[in-house]
Write a structure and sequence with these properties.
It is a single chain. 75% of the residues lie in helices and 0% in strands. It folds into two domains: 117 residues, no CATH class; 79 residues, no CATH class. By secondary structure, the protein is mainly alpha-helical. The chain starts with a helix and ends in a 10-residue tail after the last helix.
Length: 217
């Protein structure tokens, strides 16, 4: 687990870029993921990662059948997806506020951090609502039809709007206008530095040709 969101976010950016550049970088990213994350335990937060993997697999098969480029796409997108799942699973409430103020100061950084944290909170609430709907459907033996999906979507949108309204009213009542006084704090461990350095190494490995590391004939 990488505790420092600064190192975690930077590592995720470098790893995503490395995976996007070429398949060599993508394979290196997968090795990094195996060594420095909780691996498949990151999938426990939601069923969305499984659905994303299924979607990427389907697109990979289609591209391979039509154009013969599916394998390269599948490897690179799988690596990027693993990084995204890891980053999402490690996220803790309030972290973006710390990161935003550290990066951009107490005005713009505070506002960006609050907005990011509220967005993540809304997304988590949306997932919980979706889980409750699925449980209710299972209990009542409701079939998955277009009509039922549209009704569920309306409920989810309405609940999200209601929460956003409540949050905005709460901020207004407390007199919030812009910026804020906040001192960011971070908990950094030795494993964070090790994972960050390894991520930089992966990025360099993706950019620099293999011949740059070894003496090849």
């Amino acid at each position: 687990m990488m505790n420092d969101i600064r190192i975690r976010t930077g590592a995720a950016f470098i790893l995503s870029l490395a995976a996007f550049l070429n398949t060599t970088g993508a394979v290196a990213v997968m090795l990094w993921w195996l060594l420095f994350t909780r691996r498949f335990k990151s999938f426990n937060r939601s069923s969305i990662p499984i659905g994303s993997i299924v979607m990427v697999s389907a697109i990979t098969l289609i591209l391979q059948a039509l154009y013969g480029t599916g394998i390269s796409y599948g490897i690179r997108m799988s690596a990027i997806l693993l990084v995204a799942i890891w980053l999402w699973s490690e996220q803790q409430p309030g972290e973006f506020l710390h990161l935003g103020v550290w990066l951009f100061g107490r005005r713009w950084g505070f506002e960006l951090g609050v907005a990011a944290d509220l967005a993540m909170l809304a997304f988590d609430d949306l997932l919980r609502d979706l889980s409750r709907i699925r449980i209710a459907w299972r209990i009542k033996s409701i079939q998955l039809t277009a009509g039922n999906l549209s009704k569920a979507a309306i409920v989810l949108v309405r609940r999200t709007i209601e929460r956003a309204t409540d949050t905005s009213e709460l901020l207004a009542v407390r007199g919030y206008q812009r910026g804020g006084s906040f001192c960011p704090a971070f908990h950094t461990e030795s494993g964070d530095f090790l994972g960050g350095i390894a991520a930089v190494a992966v990025g360099l490995f993706a950019i620099i040709p293999v011949s740059g590391f070894f003496i090849l004939p």
